[in-house]
Amino acid sequence: MSSPTRRHTALPKARILIEALPWLVRHNGRTVVIKFGGNAMVDEDLKAAFAQDVVFLHHAGLRPVVVHGGGPQISAALDRHGIVTEFKAGLRVTTEEAMDVVRMVLAGQVQRELVGLLNQHGPLAVGLTGEDAHTITATRHRPEIDGEIVDIGRVGEITGIDTGAIEALLADGRIPVVSSIARSEDDGHVYNVNADTAAAALAAALGAETLMVLTDVEGLYEDWPRSDEVISRLTASELERLLPELSAGMVPKMEGCLHAVRGGVTTARVLDGRVPHSILLEIFTDEGIGTMVVPDAPEGDAE
């Protein structure tokens, strides 16, 4: 009598791989722009998991582009230099003196560390800043706060994107890692650009399928602080209606998502970067995590 089929302990792994199959097929060859930020930037285990996820996407046939800021690292460096910093309208006021530190931290510290983590898995990542090859150009951003135009220093508003250098790296099988600083054609100065905004602008210009924004919350909450229920999916118009009610820190992220889907990106997602491998969970599982923003349905189509 033949023995019963042995139950293999690895079977759940096979089921997970099969679940990923339709998503692998769907995303193959597509560009995905990932904004790296929040707690994932400072926790060693989360940083390592992030690098593994990005390299996995690359080897799974996607074309990942990483855009990063460096809020915690910039704050720490400014403290070390004795430079006091403040925020207005959710953006860091950046003096001439502070800009030198911002540039040094983003291009010389955060980017180098991220490139190093990715390149532990092979000669894949190449770092560049928005200054390089005019990838991002900007002008001085003067936000309106309580009806008044406010000067927040060397903070840039994006005026142009040139994807040539990034496209060349992608065509060469590399993973571009972009620091969110830009040079102005108006005055030649270098500006600090919000990384959420930069990631969204690059996603639209690259014709990316997906923009993913890593943050320190689970997603967009339905009725914060009264409820911690996360909105799993909403349209561009629904998001636009919600924007005035959002906290200052979430506004650039959600405005970025709105800009991306209105600019032709198929989906924009806000993910909890505190969850290890959140990128893989979002892209390759049926459930997904976080909040997904999609374009409005064409006129006459049902939602």
UniProtKB/TrEMBL annotation:
Reaction catalyzed: N-acetyl-L-glutamate + ATP = N-acetyl-L-glutamyl 5-phosphate + ADP
Keyword Nucleotide-binding annotated: yes
Record-marked site positions (Transition state stabilizer): K35, K253
One MF term in the entry's GO annotations: ATP binding
Annotated binding of substrate, by residue: G70, G71, R92, N192
Principal EC category: transferase
Location(s) in or outside the cell: Cytoplasm
GO terms for cellular component: cytoplasm
SUPFAM superfamilies per the UniProt record, alphabetical: Carbamate kinase-like (SSF53633)
Domain Aspartate/glutamate/uridylate kinase span(s) in chain numbering: 31-271
GO terms, biological process: L-arginine biosynthetic process via ornithine
EC number per UniProt: 2.7.2.8
Pathway(s) of this molecule: Amino-acid biosynthesis; L-arginine biosynthesis; N(2)-acetyl-L-ornithine from L-glutamate: step 2/4
Pfam families: AA_kinase (PF00696)
Keywords: Amino-acid biosynthesis, Arginine biosynthesis, ATP-binding, Cytoplasm, Kinase, Nucleotide-binding, Transferase
Function: Catalyzes the ATP-dependent phosphorylation of N-acetyl-L-glutamate.
Family of this protein: Belongs to the acetylglutamate kinase family. ArgB subfamily.
PANTHER family the record matches: N-ACETYLGLUTAMATE SYNTHASE, N-ACETYLGLUTAMATE SYNTHASE, MITOCHONDRIAL
Protein name: Acetylglutamate kinase
Gene name of the encoded protein: argB
